[in-house]
Structure formats: C-alpha cells, structure tokens
Amino acid sequence: MTSESTAPATASQLDVFEDLRRRVDARLESVLTESESDASRRAKDAVDTVVQVRDLTMRGGKRLRPAMLLAAVECVVEWKTLAAAVVDTSCGIELLQTYLLIHDDWMDGDAVRRGGPTVHVSLAKRYNDDHLGASAAILAGDFASALAQDMALSPSVPKARLFDVARAFITMQREVVLGQTLDVLNSSDLEAIHDLKTGSYTVRGPIALGHALAGGSPEQWSALEAFANPLGVAFQLRDDLIGAFGDEKETGKSAASDLRQAKMSAPVRWALERLPEAKKSELRSVLGTDQYVRAQELLIESGAPEGVERRIDELEAKALAALESPALRREGARLLARLAALMCKRKK
Amino acid sequence: MTSESTAPATASQLDVFEDLRRRVDARLESVLTESESDASRRAKDAVDTVVQVRDLTMRGGKRLRPAMLLAAVECVVEWKTLAAAVVDTSCGIELLQTYLLIHDDWMDGDAVRRGGPTVHVSLAKRYNDDHLGASAAILAGDFASALAQDMALSPSVPKARLFDVARAFITMQREVVLGQTLDVLNSSDLEAIHDLKTGSYTVRGPIALGHALAGGSPEQWSALEAFANPLGVAFQLRDDLIGAFGDEKETGKSAASDLRQAKMSAPVRWALERLPEAKKSELRSVLGTDQYVRAQELLIESGAPEGVERRIDELEAKALAALESPALRREGARLLARLAALMCKRKK
C-alpha cells in the first residue's frame, strides 16, 4: 500500500467529502436548533444571538476544515470506524470558526460575510444601537465558543483519546487568537501571522485534531505536520490574493477589504519591496482609503500576483512531498493531496 | 460522621482556603509567565494582551470560586488526594473569570476593575485608539478563554473524569454567556439573569466542577445543587446591593455603576414596585445619569436595602439546610457553610 503514488482523488473519494459535508450540516442544524430552543426556554431575550450563530454557521458552505480532519483520520485508520466522532469534532471546528469570524468581523469593521450581513451589523440594526449590537455580537461569538468546545469534546470521542483531542483543540485556539492579535495590531511579522492565524486553524489544527482522534503515532504526526505547515502558509497567501483582488459577489466578503484596511498582506509587501520609490509612496498613500482600484493597479505593476502565485505553487509542492511518507495510509494521503489542490486554487 | 452539625469552620479549616489561595496564585503566576514568554517568542507584538491577562488575573485576591470547588471535592473525598487537579481546575475557573470580566467591562464601559484600569481602557491608552484598544481587549479575553480550558482540562485531572470535568466547565460557560447576554440587553427576566450569570459561574459551576473532579454520586450532586442554587441567587443579590451602594475604594469597581447604567437590579426593582408614583418616575428619570446619589436616596426610602438583605438571609438559610444531607462528607459541608457566610456578608 505504502508504495502507491499520491495521485488526485477519484470521484468516489470526492463523494467522501460531500457525504461529510451533509453529515456535518445536518448535525450543526440539529445542535443549533436545540441550542435555540434551550435559549428560548431559559433566556428568551438572548435568543437573537443564538439565531445569529446559527445563521452564520449554516451559511458556511465549504466545510474544508472538516474535510481536512477526516483526511487526517484516514491517514491513520478508516474514518468510518470513528464516523460519529469525526462529525462531532468537525462541528466543533466549524463553530470555532463561527466564533472567530464574529469577533474578527467586528474588529475589522466588515459588513459582509458569507454573502450576508455580519453579526454585529445585524444586531446593531436589530437593537438600533451600535454598541449594543457589538456587545451582543461579542457574546454571540462567546456562545459559539462554548458550543464549539461542547462538540469537539462530545461523548462520541473515545474516552481514551479525549485528553489529546482537548489539547489539539485548545492549542489551535491559543495560536489563532495570538495570530489574530498580531493581525489586528497590523504587526509586520507576516510569517507569524500566517503560521498562527490561518495556518493553525485552517490546516494544522484540523489535522492535529484528526490525528489525536484517530490515536495516530508520532511518526504519523511528523509527516502530517510537514504537510500542514507549508499548506497553511499557501492557504494564507491565497487568502491575501483574494483579500486584494477578490470581488464581493464571488467571495461573500467586502471587495478588496485588505487594501481598504491597509493590511500588510503578502502582495502589498511584495509591491513595497519592488516598486520604484515614487510608486511605493503612492501605494502607501492609497492603502487604507477607498482608492483600492489604484492600489490594485500598483500591485499588478509590481508583479505581486504572479510572485505570490509562484510561492503558493512551491509551498503546495512541498506539502505534497510530505505525503510520500510511508507512515501514512495511502487512502488518507490521497484525500489530503486533493484538499491541498482545492485550497491552493480556490477563488473564495 | 454524618450526624455532626454544620458548625462554622474552625481556624484550621480557614487555613485550607488560605493554603489553596497561595497555591492557585503561584500556579497562575507560573502559567501566565510561561504564556508571556511563549508569546514573546512566537508573537512578539501580541505580548501586551497576554500581560493584560496576567495583570488582571493576579489582581484577583479572594479566589472564592476555587474555595467553592475545593469544598465540593471535600464533600466527596479528601481534597488532598486530588490536590494538583484541584489547583489546576481552580486556575481554569479564575482564568474563565478573567475572560468574562474583560469582555463584560468593555460592554459595560467600566473603567475600573479590581482596583486598576480595565483592560480595554489600558489597551486603548497603549495604542492611542479606542477601537484598537477594544479589539485587543476582546482578544485578550479570548486568549484567557483558551488558557482557562487548558487549565481546567489539565494533565492532573484523572483521565476517567476528564469527560465530566469538561461537561461541567462547558455548561458553566454556556450559562454565563446567556446570562450576560440577558444582562447586557437589560432583560427584565431578573431570575434568569441571577441563575445563569452569577449563580452559574460563581457557585453552581465551581461546585459542579468539584463534584465531577471528585467522581461524586448523583445523590451528592442533588445535595450540592440544592445548596448552590439559593446561594447563587443570594450572591447576586449581594452583588446588586454592592452595585447600588458600594464605593469604588472598597469594591475596586466604579461607584454605583449599576445605577449609572440603569440596570434593573434587585434593589431598583424593589423600589419600582413600592415607591409612590411620583417618586417612581423620579427614580426612572435619574437612573442611567450621574445623579446616582439621588437614586440611592430613593432606594433607601423604599426600604430596598433591608428588603434585599432579608431575602439574602432566607436564601442563605435554605442553602445551609441542604448541607444537612447525609450524602455529603461533614468536612466538606462545614467548608461550604463557611463559604456561604462569607459570600452573603461580603462588601466587595
């Protein structure tokens, strides 16, 4: 088995992800409906925030992180032997993302997320008060965080593995919060942001959870980590390109939001390192304003899109090479390779 | 043993709490110092938020919740047999409180906490920007939340009890977040706020954690819950009196903050139910303004302080009666009785 090549997944393997997506959506729907009824009974006036958690969570379509978790489990054992736990911990990751997105969107002042209004915007409108809307949004995030823990540490997780699953879930949170702090403070330490923010909770975190859930070995972890780290950076670079050039209709996020917020993203840094002095100054002066079209022109002139694309390709190749490790089951490695391709080429 | 009366704790039992406080403080100091070094290495620009978490946590002197947890453990087994886990889960509760306080203080616009500036105020000053300060404060809270989970589910917790400890810890969070949401939205459902907000994470939550950690029986839980619920309400009523009449120097919080925020607290509700129409209108008009001295006069005129005090006494008596249960070890019941007295009589 271990000598098979890491070829792209076949149609039946893609169905694994579609199957998982449906199971995760159904489970999330059921858990969030239950939370809503519970809040209606015990804290009626707080039910709006639970409804917001539900709406935002159910609008998240891709469920890439659950797919990553499942593929990591499949690198160790057949995921079907742990199906209920894979679905529950996947819901934990999705709810963790809901929590982080709600808080991030308020911090960044974003109005649109997943093709709908952000939670703080909805609630500010609902209560006709910006601070109250923001406060209720932060609490909606905090509620999603508690629910995320509930699902990640659910009764379906084998008791003997609960400790390791908890560690993986907590590590992911510590890292992503530090990464988001760097991001909000506009730190120039891009590598740390990439590693801690997106890398951690998009790739390494879900994979670490899958590995813990499946009871994987240290050798398997070494191979999985060597896959996860470059892929996490590649994912963030793709995010940076989308944040600079993506349009709202396609991404479900505000257009060119990173440029309007003057984020030190990878394409911006590329341009600032390569443009001649006058254009560098011009770029600096249009960042953080509404003149994002001019900022985009300057990035293109600097060759940033191609430069960042090349770096993404290199990182993807590095991630794929790690999957050749004989420690990993081929079935899982193939699924991870397919996900790497999806993540590096996505448009939203 | 079970026929012994529930007399106040002796001097040597008080030393148990003092001993615990020292151990919890030392462990918190060590964990937070480690987190700070870790952040310095991996996310240098985010270290301020970790320092804020540390400062606020270390300024919390009473450690009443850890004492409650220890006493609940002692109702089931000798706490010394689980000393490391009692200290670690106690740190988890204290860090949970740090998380909740940081978020609450920003929502309530409070400037003072535990005798120092609140985190959002410190960070706004540090970054010379209110929104950035608030964002970094929310993230400081989120970081404390992750750290709280790390300590509550630490390696010292017996593996066979980790699942129950996790459930207790998560339930507490779900409840307190719903309670805080009601509070922020100024819900008129005071009972739900008392039960979910303060009751849950001050009394019932720590006791549930202690019970789970010690592997207690359902009978022991029934008795502990019958103690916790009335005491939780009594604690909240005391909080409401302090929030209306306490002064900043003694409480470490802004003076009369509940009156200035027009909170529907127990003394306010008492007065609104009993004052004659004209004074009722006057009270309504001064609530939420700087005229809190007049609001205090009106509350006193209505008999609110004595009325609420009487209710606290009744609730304390009810809580103490539950401790007579033969299911509980007398050593633990005595500690809980002592804590009930401390909580009902405190001035801050």
Word description of this protein:
Two copies of one chain form a homodimer. By secondary structure, chain A is mostly helical. Chain A has a single domain, classed as Farnesyl Diphosphate Synthase (Orthogonal Bundle). Helices cover 75% and strands 1% of the residues of chain A. Chain A is built from 16 helices and two strands. In chain A, strands 1-2 form a two-stranded antiparallel sheet. In chain A, helix 3 packs antiparallel against helix 4. The longest helix of chain A has 32 residues. The N terminus of chain A is likely disordered. The interface between A and B is large, with 46 and 47 residues.
Short description:
The structure is a homodimer of 348-residue chains. Chain A has 348 residues and is mainly α.
CATH topology of chain A: Farnesyl Diphosphate Synthase
Oligomer: homodimer
Summarize the biggest pleated sheet of chain A: 2 strands, antiparallel
Rg of chain A (C-alpha, Å): 20 Å
> Regarding CATH, which class of chain A?
Mainly Alpha
Helix content of chain A: over 70%
Largest interface: A-B, 46 and 47 residues
> What is the count of structural domains of chain A?
1
Helix and strand sequence of chain A: HHHHEEHHHHHHHHHHHH
Shape of chain A: flat
